[in-house]
Amino acid sequence: MHPIRRIREDIASAKLRDPAARGAVEIALLYPGLHAVWAYRLWHALWIRRARFVARAGSQVTRWLTGVEIHPGATIGRRFFIDHGMGVVIGETAEIGDDVMLYHGVTLGGRTRDAGKRHPTLGDGVAVGSGAKILGPITIGAGSVVGANAVVTRDAPEDSVLVGIPAKPRRRSAGEDTRALLTVPEYYI
């Protein structure tokens, strides 16, 4: 996809997911989560071309500027949006599908020092609430929602809701809206 088209798609995705977004210029200039994703794409391109030191150094500068740490080795799909962003950490072997949304303070982290897959995989359309921690080489199925401050250490099927410490999945009811799930008090920890 052409870079300009990708930027427009990202801005449209942010506008769709953030009710406070007023326009494309505001989003492009003032959304640090979006800036972190755009910088990640540059550093990831260098990472896969084996310019790993430069990619890591660049990702650390981005972290310093935006408060969002995305390892350049992570794999991220289209229309990924980080709302507010501060404190988000995405590990090297994390895999994120299309149309995923994270709120501030989310960690997609590892639980081991072993080589290989150490970080989570998020399916398409997953939404993760503020402060949630998803740890280890687990898979969160497409369309799932992780509640604020949940700690997830086990796989979850598609269309599930995960809340608690440790998080326990339940099936989403038909018609439940992802954004509504993240703001309804019963889903807070």
Structure keywords:
disordered C terminus, five-stranded parallel β-sheet, 15 strands, 189 residues, alpha/beta, 31% helix, six-stranded mixed β-sheet
What number is the mean pLDDT?
A: 90
Estimate the global geometry from the Cα principal axes: globular
Distance between the termini: 40 Å
Sheet-strand content, in percent, reads: 15-25%
Number of helices: 5
The helicity comes to: 25-40%
Uncertain parts: 183-189
Find the structural class using helix and strand composition: alpha/beta
**Rg (C-alpha, Å):** 16 Å
* Biggest sheet descriptor: 6 strands, mixed
The largest beta-sheet arranges its strands as 3-6-9-12-14-15
The total beta strand count reads 15
Order of helices and strands: HHHHEEEEEEEEEEEEEEEH
Overview of the molecule:
This protein is of the alpha/beta class and 189 residues long. 31% of the residues lie in helices and 20% in strands. The chain has helices at residues 3-17, 24-30, 32-48, 52-66, 178-181; strands at 69-70, 75-76, 81-82, 89-90, 95-96, 101-102, 107-109, 121-122, 127-128, 133-135, 139-140, 145-146, 151-152, 160-164, 167-171. The protein starts with a helix and ends in an 8-residue tail after the last helix. Mean pLDDT is 90; it is low at 183-189.
Topology:
Blueprint: H1 3-17, H2 24-30, H3 32-48, H4 52-66, E1 69-70, E2 75-76, E3 81-82, E4 89-90, E5 95-96, E6 101-102, E7 107-109, E8 121-122, E9 127-128, E10 133-135, E11 139-140, E12 145-146, E13 151-152, E14 160-164, E15 167-171, H5 178-181
Parallel strand pairs: 1-4, 2-5, 3-6, 4-7, 5-8, 6-9, 7-10, 8-11, 9-12, 10-13, 12-14
Antiparallel strand pairs: 14-15
Helix pairs in contact: 3-4
